[in-house]
Specification:
162 residues; mainly alpha
Amino acid sequence: MDMIKEMFLLIWKVLPAYIANATPLIMVRSGHPIDLNKKFIDGRPLLGPGKTIEGFFVGFISGILTGLLQNPGNLMRAFTLSLGAMLGDLLGSFIKRRLNIGRGRPAPFLDQATFIIVALLLSSKFESYTIWEMFTIILITIPIHLITNMVAYMVGIKKVPW
């Protein structure tokens, strides 16, 4: 039972990042591409049309609000977890485009982990994590991400189940 309790405590610790990552999918149906439809030197989109200015800000703000509800005295923790999640998601899209993986196509680990890895790294000055906690957070994020995406697909929020 202690292991389950520990996992829930770790999820709680990084909840602003999870909320920031999920909210754009739920709240934003369309928007202005954050990459302004620019191409990288390889001729492919920088990020693609699925990453929008509106989605970035909705995710960022919702993550900050979540963090402030958890701990009103630690704005920087909320800020860095949220910003890290959004930047990590953009990084994942950038890497997928470089690997010529199309929008909506799966990229195991990359799809599930980049947002939380960047959030952990960026927030580590304002929230302490042991190496074991970071490893565990990344490990439990993968099935959480897969399950929540499957649910979002089943209820019609996502077009693909990954």
